């Protein structure tokens, strides 16, 4: 039997009060993606959007230029090590050069997703992909990758909008938007270099108003498995809780409309087709994303492994991702063999939200003991544990620090979270 993911509980905005004819909305973003433009248009038929470039471009660095640094390295029969079969032991500290190249390569696929998204809220095609599958990689700056796009992906908010939303601007009312793509390695030389045929799912970060609202729905929602039994932790603390994930992330993954299938349905359909086509070959599924895309990448990996019992190795390479679920969810990921490499900038606030983390794997304490917040009374600690706000980190962490890099021009919230910053730090760490 396969596990199933039920949709998160819908959030309904109040409809009792009709807004005035002229509504002014202000919002503050902690990430690049809601306003992130390109320095220059990659499509000569579409001008670049005006932006806060002095805040969001920390350095003169093109992450696409680093894509080719790994192409000369033949991974061969060691490819599973770089996909995390041994949890990247001995490869993270210090960072192995081959792994560095792979991280940059997958990060470039995410950058291509950003560059292909239409951020112009005044456009009738706001929230759509700017390019067709046949030219997306080339037109977004990735040339001769050996990969071919096979599916566009969309994410839909499950928030129920009031009837007056039609009067709101596009960035508020857009319910479903393009969020990434699936690409399959087709080049024989690249397949030989990688040691297998690789399937990439690349997901961008938050861009629309409703995606931001979903981000703020930070309580945990159960993700029940088929037998509905909670996961038992073998750490001696007697905690038997069911797997739970952030409500808004689950909503964006499982919600759909009459016209647009959910992201979950799109992924399952495409992976099913690809497994039927290439299932008899050495195959890997690599899911990569930044910010919101990193969270959705983790959910996608979980769903693939629980839906397809004969799925090949599934690896997540996430950049600047927020926390996704509780300890039981982490245990489920580990049990199913999903490998997660979290690339984290310690100066990035987004990686520290949402919720509380009452344990710390890096702390010098035995794994069978909880780490309690200093000065927090035990009765408050117990109340926190009983709420749906206790998250757990997943996978292996590659920790970076932007403040230690002398090449960064600006150190602020946006800079620390920018994907370009992450790729620069990986390249020069």
UniProtKB/TrEMBL annotation:
InterPro entries: AB_hydrolase_fold, Fungal_lipase-type. Signal peptide: none annotated. GO terms for biological process: lipid catabolic process. Keywords: Chloroplast, Hydrolase, Lipid degradation, Lipid metabolism, Plastid, Transit peptide. GO terms for molecular function: galactolipase activity; phospholipase A1 activity. The keyword Ion transport does not apply. Pfam families: Lipase_3 (PF01764). Residues 200-356 form the Fungal lipase-type domain. SUPFAM superfamilies: alpha/beta-Hydrolases. Belongs to the AB hydrolase superfamily. Lipase family. This is Fungal lipase-type domain-containing protein. It comes from Gossypium darwinii (Darwin's cotton). The lineage of its organism: Eukaryota, Viridiplantae, Streptophyta, Embryophyta, Tracheophyta.
């Amino acid at each position: 039997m396969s596990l199933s993911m039920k949709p998160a509980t819908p959030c309904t905005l109040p409809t009792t009060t009709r807004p005035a004819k002229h509504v002014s909305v202000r919002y503050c973003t902690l990430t690049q993606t809601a306003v992130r433009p390109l320095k220059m248009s990659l499509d000569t038929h579409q001008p670049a959007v005006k932006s806060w470039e002095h805040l969001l471009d920390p350095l003169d660095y093109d992450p696409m230029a680093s894509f080719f640094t790994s192409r000369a390295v033949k991974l061969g029969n060691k490819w599973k090590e770089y996909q995390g079969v041994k949890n990247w032991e001995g490869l993270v500290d210090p960072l192995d050069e081959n792994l560095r190249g792979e991280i940059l390569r997958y990060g470039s696929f995410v950058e291509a997703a950003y560059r292909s998204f239409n951020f112009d809220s005044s456009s009738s095609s706001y929230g759509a992909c700017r390019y067709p599958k046949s030219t997306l990689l080339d037109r977004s700056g990735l040339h001769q990758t050996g990969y071919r796009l096979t599916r566009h992906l969309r994410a839909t908010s499950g928030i129920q909008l009031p009837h007056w939303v039609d009067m709101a601007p596009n960035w508020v009312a857009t319910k479903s938007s393009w969020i990434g793509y699936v690409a399959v390695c087709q080049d024989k030389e690249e397949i030989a270099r990688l040691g297998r045929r690789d399937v990439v799912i690349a997901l961008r970060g938050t861009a629309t108003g409703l995606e931001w609202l979903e981000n703020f729905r930070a309580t945990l929602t159960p993700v029940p498995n088929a037998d509905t039994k909670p996961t038992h932790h073998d750490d001696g603390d007697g905690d038997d809780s069911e797997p739970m994930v952030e409500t808004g992330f689950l909503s964006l993954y499982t919600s759909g409309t009459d016209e647009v299938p959910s992201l979950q349905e799109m992924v399952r359909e495409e992976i099913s087709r690809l497994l039927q086509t290439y299932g008899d070959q050495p195959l890997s599924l690599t899911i990569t994303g930044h910010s919101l895309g990193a969270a959705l990448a983790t959910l996608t990996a979980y769903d693939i492994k629980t839906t397809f019992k004969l799925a090949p190795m599934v690896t997540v390479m996430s950049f600047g991702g927020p926390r996704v679920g509780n300890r039981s969810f982490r245990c489920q990921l580990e049990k199913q063999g999903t490998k997660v490499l979290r690339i984290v900038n310690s100066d990035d606030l987004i990686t520290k939200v949402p919720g509380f983390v009452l344990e710390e794997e890096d702390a010098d304490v035995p794994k069978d003991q909880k780490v309690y917040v200093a000065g927090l009374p035990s009765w408050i600690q117990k109340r926190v544990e009983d709420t749906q706000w206790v998250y757990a980190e997943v996978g292996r962490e590659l920790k970076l620090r932007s403040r230690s890099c002398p090449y960064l021009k600006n150190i602020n919230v946006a800079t620390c979270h920018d994907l370009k910053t992450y790729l620069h730090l990986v390249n020069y760490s």
